[in-house]
Task: structure prediction
Amino acid sequence: MLRSKACLAVVVSWCLSVSVFAAETTSKKASVRQPSGLDQRALWTTGNIHGTPEPPDRYTTQDAFPNLKFFEPLSVGTIPGSNVFGVATRPGKIYTFENRPDVSHSELILDLKHTVYGVVFHPEFAKNRQMFVMYTLPGESPRGSRIARFEVRDGASPEATLKTETILLEWPSGGHNGGCLRFGPDGYLYLATGDGSGIADGLETGQKIDDLLGAILRIDVDHADKGLAYAIPKDNPFVGRANARGEVWSFGHRQVWKFSFDDQQRLWAGEVGQDLWEMVYVIQKGGNYGWSVNEGKHPFRPERPRGPGEFQQPIVEHPHSDFRSLTGGYVFQSDRLPELKGAYVYGDYDTGKLWSLKYAGGKVSAHQQLADTQIRIVEFAQDAAGEVYLVDFAGGGFHRIVAAPPVTETKPFPRKLSETGLFASTRDHLPAQGLIPYSVNAPLWSDHAEKERLIALPGDSQIEFDGVVYPHGPTYPDVGWRFPDGTVLVKTFSIDTEAGNPASRKRLETRILQYRKMPGNDDEYGAQFWFGYTYVWNDQQTDAELLGPAGLDRKLTIKDASAPGGSREQTWHFPSRAECTLCHTMAAKYALGVTTLQMNKDHDYGGVIANQLATLEHLGVFKTKLPKPPAELPSLADYRDSAADLNLRARSYLHANCAHCHRKWGGGNADFELQASLPLTETQTVNTRPGQGTFKLDDPRVLVPGQPDRSLVLQRMRLDGLGRMPHIAANEKDLAAIDMLREWIASLSNEELLKKSGAVHPRLPQK
Result:
């Protein structure tokens, strides 16, 4: 016992000497500058985070065609009567390839040079060689969304030319455009259209049947009615009805993102929700699916006029703690996995979760999560054998479902923070030996919270200091360390219960992000497997309990002399495990704070000031020496420092708070990028028309130099409730940042903008 206490005393002494946090606080004692903040590296050997809190998933995924990748695939269709897939990519190129595991080549059959959302081949393709494509023209246009028919030349290298295009149908573009195309078992072409707005059905078209928006349409492409390039089937539900479009099959949709038919001729649809819910429907002829009076089963704008018919209900819903952008799939028909045969398989673009359900007699059964993947599930595909494939927008590959390898873990997952092996004394918040404290240049806004950060590397493992290279894409120098198996990043959130009084500070939660190398994963192209967990601190501040998979909201009362009555309430949101993946994305390399841009700064190591990169290099944490001295490597600014350059402050804030999502393949719905390493003129924000609504601004753009009140990047931060940014993990406005960004946008005359269009700081590299 005495020996145990002595060991603990040594550990605590070590922690006190080197692990003084200085993330967002100022040390009270005099500090001295040294080349390194720590003399030598102690090893972390107490880690006790094993397995998963819940039973492991029964399935995982594997690359179905490992030698074949596409750039941003969006839609897949099979060529009837063949073993060939057709793939449409976002930039407008359409390919075909043979469905076999060793395939390494695809044929380019058409380049539309426009954004393509859907491709499908005629059921009689072998006879008529007809391919149908849904694409959009640039910008907002009353006729900017269209379906066109092309003829594919027969031969060894199939090809379609623009000369064969016949435009069948056009409707407005600019917001949700839909775009999924499938032929039904009846031989008619079905098409999903979105509501045409970005937020909250701004056009209020969801409940209308006199236009083509917010609907699933059904048309006959083999015949033509007078004045049309197609025919409207006579048994469509609204044919002959006054003030109705006969093409409408169902309506009240916000954004059906992929639908399909099964062998029972049921029409399945995945619906992307707005605020709180994602839905799966079995579509009925003439059905009204409620948007935007409802979001799924729940009131959204109940005061709005309703269209005809009772609202049809989703068969399942997922809250935004689990799903954020549901992608509809297919009913699994293959014999390869008998237990999945007959199950509808679907997933989520943002979280990578893969689920299934069985449905009979109006009841759902066997509703289960199959796998928690790192895939941007943008589409599913199904071959003639009934096999279902997941299509990865970011990685460009096809994946299939396979049984997960058996789990051999014997130790339970820690339910208390004190059981993780991360702290020598949880009550005193003293890290275990070997954990390395760190701070960041530009912290993520977290509703007035203060944060303390730690890096835990198992034993003498090391970090690879490198950039990120994506397949068919650019190299980004602004992110990209590669971490050893078992790495844990730790962040404790605390809040002053009396505004401005650090003595009133109370710990709320400790979040951990753990990297685990998965069987068969070689980390190609930066693919990693990170798992986020939250521990909620008790009122006594002695320990923290593991939060379940769902998130949690808690009301806090803050003493504040500036508030009416001397206090205010704020809601603190504890994120669900799925919500962690919304910011910690593959595109941002998962670890947002432990990067060169964020960590190239001085840190106070308990009275010793030193550069963090130099300290990590001195400790031997990096596998190789830094490519340059820290003074020559890039860094962000502390955007709270009013003495720093205004342009650098603004770009650093947007990078830290927005760029994990608003970057290529980051998950953001808008096509612009906010990394600070990009020249401003290459971010696609300057004078760019918004694609997600105007938010009551007069002729807005994403960013208008010199005009803050026309710039949506600022307006979205100023909103209350719906549409406010950042929309994840923040309930309070960052008022200081709003003022700073307003000043920055106002300062950007066109001439000055051009001057600042290169790297935002000499230490930031050019693209």
In short: The first strand starts at residue 32 and ends at 33.
